[in-house]
Specification:
By secondary structure, this protein is mainly β. It has 3 domains: 28-122, Carboxypeptidase-like, regulatory domain (Immunoglobulin-like, Sandwich), CATH 2.60.40; 135-247, TonB-dependent receptor, plug domain (Ferric Hydroxamate Uptake Protein, Chain A, domain 1, Beta Complex), CATH 2.170.130.10; 255-638 and 674-734 and 775-886 and 921-998, Beta Barrel (Maltoporin, Chain A), CATH 2.40.170.20. Helix content is 5%, strand content 50%. The strands form 10 sheets. The chain has a 22-stranded antiparallel beta barrel. Strands 3-2-5-6-9 form a 5-stranded mixed β-sheet, with no helix packed on it. Strands 10-16-17-14-15 form a 5-stranded mixed β-sheet. The chain is globular, with a radius of gyration of 30 Å. The two termini are 58 Å apart.
Length: 999
């Protein structure tokens, strides 16, 4: 039986949306004031906005008692605005370019005159938004077509100052599309996966909100990329980057385009040099082949009433990965690279999308969008993951299906009703990339060698079945006058992560150090994981008032988040029998109230300079069923445990009684005594899963100055501050800080280490052997133990200009730092920190030597430009400069190395090892990264059609900075700082040819 609270909220939401399926809320619009020539305000003026982008052609309002008007929810496009009042001449302003998230201020002065007299003004488009406090970066379709890019959404996002894109923990640095697609955008200290990926205002993500899904954005269906980066409106629960892909709708004329691009191995240079070779890079990334084909068309089914747009696209990437080679012998327990067979990372994706727009009546518009996507690709390119350890992910059954329906109705000149719904369905499977006979002695063993810094032999886990279904609903009501905008609405999201199945063929992972067996990690498998987001409901109100030069925005959002774990039956495995778990409810049951406050002031009253400030509270995001997963009994029983391993007979097979927790045979004692027992080993404190205001959150503060330097040229200068709260820690209730003994280490002699190495570092801790293997975790509030600080401060400067004749210039810098301080102890007094974040990394509080990370302020710079030349020639280019990758060093210490300092062996035994950090996070960085790309375009008209021929050159100067390196020092530093993975070294200079036929 449904719970009353949940049912009431759900019935209210569904009742509201019963017949009006969907809506995207576009914040862009027109606003301004109308006066007579003496400066007196004119109420009652009819203001009409017309554009080919509107299927209804015209939207009209009337100025209020203050002579002000506002027309929200307009499509991006080019507009004409007409002002008419009996007894006054009519004024028409033409050529107003409206982009997503921008409120263009268009004022008018009406002179007394005949009604038939019309004054036409072709004015410049405003570049300063004097009313909206949020910032939105825009890349329009024509700019996207002009720039040298890989036609990926994240490759485009990286061109925006302040935005950092990450993939698998690495900073995204694309060269012509070779980096593929990543879906994690951060800005101003936000968390990865914390923003929103939207299509026409509705979410586009799976339950994990992860780039490990099959989802990829398709630029061929996009009219405009809009990235909301600060002062996010109350319509959304989270901060971070909100990317909205405004879809193409078609129009009253049939139009279409065919696009094709190609590049191959003969079109790329080689940037391997002696320095890279000295760092252990035997090769660099090398393209084998890539192509991108798309066909799109749109037009009227019925003029001014029914439009369509459809697109199909296929893009394939085969990229040879630097330092990753096939194994010369797959049938042994070693990895010996075959330097003649560099591994190719492959991605093959086909996407079909279609949109229909229907003006049902003059006051009702419906829109539907459907997308089907098939993707085959590897699950990731983690550092040092050798080919046989990769798994292949592909869609099964329906693969990825996404649909949305949108409805809007300007019921009156002042009343606007909008609503929407979407559904995302995904089914995938992951399999081993290369098969081995099941009777092979090394079949199924996943091997990690911490000394060599590699992972090989077999995937860590396989997932024969994965899937999720996400549904979203949204509705809002707006009341608009010239000086007042009131908006109220509701969002509802539900999701199911349905019985995801994980299997680990040998039930364990083997751990080596420099080719010598050292430890095993036992695994409970198979496992079914089933979680639900019953609902994430948000109710929001926004009230915006304009008085003379001042606009005040007051927003408030209430969030209710409720998850659960359905009843589950787990099959028997090698180490644990069949199990049944009852349903777990209210994980979480969160309620939050988040204010969004903003003020904008037209400094001189001419619409050319605005000062803005905002204060916004957001709830933290991430996987939408993460808390339910953390409370899932399948996950909170102990699913893995370590045992030291001495391979006495050198056959590389651990031979011992795994059921016996005591040391026996080749195995040391079991690292967690709860392994192999159907015992919940970790519980969540109700104080973090139930109640008001207990959800992790962050506050964002912005102060921004916007100024029009010249017609169509604007500059923004902004200060940004973000601070997080409600951190959680896992407390092992069976141990205390007194159960740990301290020791020191002496760092290796190495000129690459701070001070050349040979330094003593203290503050490391090891658990007393009497407590070894004892664990019962309680996830609770961090502030019970001490203060956790996570703060970002930064300043951005950007310039945007349309200088006439098609000349476009955008660029800027973003300077900031994120500092993290966790100097308090929970269990071990030692702090484990893994460097300043580009994306989220694990942090364990403690009083160790690296508990306070304060990296230097660092600057990112980005510029893009498009310049038309005579004879239908156009040149365009982009330039980026970013900080080098952070450098840390994880040193593998053997028990014998610290016996003198610790006064005993490690608690894991005399053959045990532990890993410690020996470089202060935030103190060392690789060299700065520079990249320049360029495009030469020739446009050739062919009758009523147009062809566009492009020649692209990426990484013009053939730079070879290391983007990702091994931070594993191992035991001797042999692999430390070695470039690794798909993005180990920036791809060499690449040439690409492409063409587009527009008809």
């Amino acid at each position: 039986m449904a719970r009353p609270g949940v049912s009431c909220v759900r019935i209210l939401a569904l009742g509201t949306l019963l017949w009006i399926h969907a809506s995207a809320v576009f914040a862009q619009g027109l606003a301004g004031a109308v006066r007579d020539t003496s400066g007196a305000v004119l109420p009652g003026v009819t203001v009409e906005a017309s554009s080919p982008a509107l299927i209804e052609k015209i939207r009209s309002v009337v100025t209020d008692s203050q002579g002000q008007y506002s027309i929200p929810d307009l499509r991006p496009g080019v507009y004409a605005v007409t002002f008419a009042l009996p007894g006054f001449s009519t004024v028409r302003r033409e050529g107003i370019v409206l982009t997503t998230g921008f409120t263009a201020t268009v004022n008018a002065d009406l002179a007394i005159g005949a009604l038939a007299e019309t004054i036409v003004v072709s004015g410049e488009t405003p570049v300063v938004d004097t009313r909206t406090v949020g910032e939105t970066a825009i890349l329009e379709d024509e700019v996207i077509e002009a720039l040298p890019t890989g036609r990926t959404s994240t490759g485009l996002a990286t061109l925006i100052p302040g935005i950092v894109v990450s993939e698998g923990g690495r900073r995204f640095q694309d060269v012509g599309g070779l980096a593929g697609e990543g879906n994690n955008w951060v800005i101003h200290g936000s968390r990865s996966e914390e923003g929103h990926n939207l299509i026409s205002g509705l979410p586009f993500h799976n339950a994990a909100r992860s780039n490990q899904s099959t989802a990829r954005n398709d630029v061929s269906v996009v009219e405009e990329f809009a990235l909301e980066t600060s002062a996010i409106s109350a319509e959304y629960a989270e901060g971070g980057v909100t990317m909205n892909l405004v879809g193409k709708e078609g129009g009253n004329q049939f139009r279409g385009a065919f696009f094709a691009s190609y590049s191959g191995d003969s079109m790329q240079s080689n940037n391997l040099d002696a320095d890279l070779t000295a760092r252990g890079a035997p090769a660099v990334n090398k393209l084998r082949r890539m192509h991108d084909y798309s066909l799109s068309a749109g037009g009227p089914i019925k003029q001014d009433q029914l439009w369509y747009f459809a697109s199909i696209r296929n893009w394939v990437l085969q990229n040879l990965v630097a330092g990753v080679f096939d194994d010369t012998n797959r049938s042994d327990f070693f990895y010996t690279p075959d330097l003649g067979r560099q591994f190719a990372l492959v991605e093959d994706l086909t996407n079909f999308g279609t949109r229909v727009t229907w003006q049902v009546t003059p006051k009702n518009k419906l829109q539907g969008y459907f997308q089907k996507q098939r993707r085959v690709g590897f699950t990731g390119s983690a550092p040092a993951l050798m080919p046989e350890a990769l798994a292949l992910r592909e869609g099964t059954g329906p693969g990825l299906l996404y649909g949305q329906a949108l409805w809007s109705a300007p019921l009156t000149a002042r009343l606007l009703l909008e609503a929407g719904t979407s559904m995302y369905v995904e089914r995938t499977t992951t399999t081993a990339t290369e098969g081995l006979p099941t009777d092979s002695p090394n079949w199924g063993y996943h091997i990690v060698d911490s000394g060599f810094g590699i992972t090989y032999n077999y995937p860590a886990a396989l997932s024969p079945r994965q899937g999720s279904t996400v549904q979203n609903y949204k509705a809002s009501l707006s009341y608009v006058t010239g000086s007042h905008l009131f908006k109220a609405g509701m969002t509802v999201e539900t999701a199911v992560n349905g019985k995801n199945f994980t299997e680990i063929p040998r039930d364990m992972t083997l751990l080596f150090v420099n080719g010598v067996p050292n430890r095993i990690t036992l695994q409970i498998q198979p496992r079914y994981i089933h979680t639900k987001l019953n609902q994430a409901t948000g109710i929001f109100v926004t009230d915006r008032w304009t008085r003379e030069r001042l606009t005040l925005t007051l927003g408030l959002r209430f969030d209710y988040n409720n998850g659960s774990v359905p009843a589950q039956d787990q099959p028997a495995g090698r180490f644990l029998g069949a199990r049944h778990f009852d349903e777990v409810r209210d994980v979480p049951n969160w309620k939050d109230l988040s204010p969004r406050l903003g003020v904008a002031y037209d400094l001189f009253g001419d619409g050319r300079t605005a000062v803005k400030a905002s204060l916004s509270r957001y709830v933290n995001g991430g996987p939408i069923t993460a808390t339910a997963l953390a409370a899932n009994p399948v996950a909170t029983t102990v699913n893995n445990a370590n045992r030291n391993w001495t391979d006495l007979n050198a056959n590389f097979l651990p031979e011992c009684d795994f059921v016996n927790p005591a040391a026996n045979g080749e195995c040391g004692p079991l690292g967690n005594r709860n392994f192999g027992r159907n015992v919940i080993a970790t519980v969540l404190d109700p104080a973090i899963t139930q109640g008001f205001g207990v959800r992790p959150y962050n506050w964002e503060t912005t102060v921004i100055l916007q100024h029009e330097l010249a017609p169509s040229v604007g500059v923004n200068v902004g200060y940004y501050h973000r601070q997080y709260g409600n951190f959680t820690v896992t407390d092992n209730t069976l141990v205390t800080t007194a159960d740990y003994d301290t020791y020191c280490i002496t760092t290796p002699i190495d000129a690459r280490l701070p001070g050349g190495g040979g330094q003593e570092i203290c503050g490391y801790y090891d658990l007393n052997p009497a407590k070894f293997g004892q664990f019962f975790g309680r996830v609770t509030k961090a502030d019970q133990f001490g203060r956790w600080e996570d703060v970002y401060d930064g300043v951005d400067v950007s310039v945007t200009g349309r200088l006439g004749g098609g000349l476009v210039l955008q660029g800027g810098t973003s300077t900031g730092r994120q500092r993290v301080k966790t100097c308090f102890a929970v269990d071990s007094p030692e702090a484990t920190l893994q460097g300043p974040r580009v994306t989220d990394v694990p942090i364990t509080p403690g009083l160790g030597p690296f508990c306070d990370v304060r990296p230097p302020f660092q600057t990112v710079g980005k510029v893009l430009a498009s310049v038309p030349l005579p004879w239908n020639i156009q040149v365009a280019g982009t330039f980026q400069t970013t900080p080098g990758p952070p450098i840390t060093a994880t040193y593998v210490v053997r028990s014998a190395d610290i016996r003198a300092s610790l006064g005993r062996d490690l608690s894991s035994g005399p053959t045990g090892t532990t890993s410690v950090e020996i470089v202060r996070p935030g103190s060392l960085y690789g060299p700065r990264v520079y990249q320049m790309d360029a495009r030469l375009t020739k446009i050739v008209p062919v009758g009523r059609m147009r062809t566009q021929w492009n020649f692209d050159a990426f990484n013009i100067f053939n730079a070879n900075p290391v983007l990702q390196h091994s931070n594993s020092y191992g035991t001797n530093g042999a692999t430390w700082l070695r470039p690794e993975g798909q993005s180990g070294v920036m791809n060499a200079r690449l040439f690409k040819v492409s063409g587009q036929l527009t008809f």
